[in-house]
Every structure is written in structure tokens, then in C-alpha cells.
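Re: the pair you flagged

First of the two:
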Amino acid sequence: MFFAFWLSHVPPTRLPDFWNTVAAALTPGGKVIFIDDGPAAAAYEEVLTNQPTPAALRRLDDGRRYRIVKVFHDARTLTDDLTARGWSVRIRSMAGNFIGIAEPPARAGDETTTVATS
């Protein structure tokens, strides 16, 4: 599974359910690859303060404005959070973004058996 610049739009309180949904969508042994904005990207956003959920203001070319959920994840914190949930994860920073590869913990019944043939 792959997603780009999407994780930063998931409210922090919904991350556990989000990762559970991702895990359920993967086949046994499946992995997720993701990329998103790191903390440095906040300098290019109109970050809203004093919000119940991290947010930014986005302006469209036609002048409309929208308040969006925008979480600038730190690679180390995200790695620690996923590891605490039992995921095997590697996340690295690159050019102000982060790139991650993660595999959820094995679910009961997901074990595969290798059958030898002759």
C-alpha cells in the first residue's frame, strides 16, 4: 500500500484507528510506504494556533479559504509511536519530508506455512 501527503491530515486522536485500518487492509506480510511533510514544511503553511486539532489555513486560487487538519509529524516521534503499536518501521527525513516503510504486527492466523516440494 502507498499513500503520499495524506498522513498529515489525520487528526492525532484518530491515528490509532487509522493505523488499525491500514493494517487490516494489508495482506499478510504486506507493508505500507508513505511520504509526507515534515516539521520544516510548517514554515510554508499558515498554521493556526490555539486549535483543538493541529490545523492550517489553505487558500485556493479562486480566493476560497479552508481550515484543514495539518499535523507536521516528526520522523522520530512517528517511528516511536508505530513501534509502540508493534509495527516494524523505518522512517527517514529527506528534503523537509519524511519517507516511511512500515509493517504491522502479525495478526492471529496470518502465519504462512512453507511447503517443501520435490
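Second of the two:
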Amino acid sequence: MSHRAEPEHTHPDDVSVQAALAALADPVRLQLVRELAGAGDWERACGTFTVPVGKAALSHHFAVLRTAGLLEQRDQGPKRVNRLRRAEFDERFPGLLALVLRDENGGSDESIGSGEDDER
């Protein structure tokens, strides 16, 4: 039995574009999404992200991403692991994640795990 409640998730189909954009506009949440995009499903536990916020703020950012349909979480033993809901989110908002995950120079961010080699 878990010592905490299971996280509630919102399906991307139930998210407005305004809510999606608001979730992705925050630099900490964008960093979380970037790191998740470069990782496999259920590979990253909450405490493994390199963001400059404490545990309470990090929990809040994860909750915003879940509510925006971007993130799915589950408990795995004592850890809470994460999955970027990329396929579902891309179906709801085609091209949005690819656009916000581009690097500052306008090129593809190689850490997003698209599965395709980027030849430059």
C-alpha cells in the first residue's frame, strides 16, 4: 500500500491550447519536458531532474504538467517515475511539442529523443 495518493492525470484531449501553452511557458516545466523527451518511458524518477527548485515547487510543476496532459506518473516502489505523453499530446496538438523543444538557434534539440539522426 502506497503512503501517498496516486497522481491524477488529465488526458490531452481534455486540455485547451491555452492550458498547454501556459504549462510549457514556464522555464522549469520546459526543462522537465526537455529532459523527459530525451529519456525513455518510466526511466526518470522525480528526484533525478536538474532544475533549480525545491521539492515542493517541483511537485507543483509536475502537477501542472499532469493537468496539461503532458506528463504521466506512477509509483514504482519508493520512487515516482514519469513518462512524457508525447504521442497523445502530439495527436491533440500536432507539432506543438516539436516547436517548443527546438533549441534556441531554431534547430532540432538532439536531446528530444525523436529516434531520427540529425545530420548537420
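The first helix runs from residue 17 to 25.

-B.
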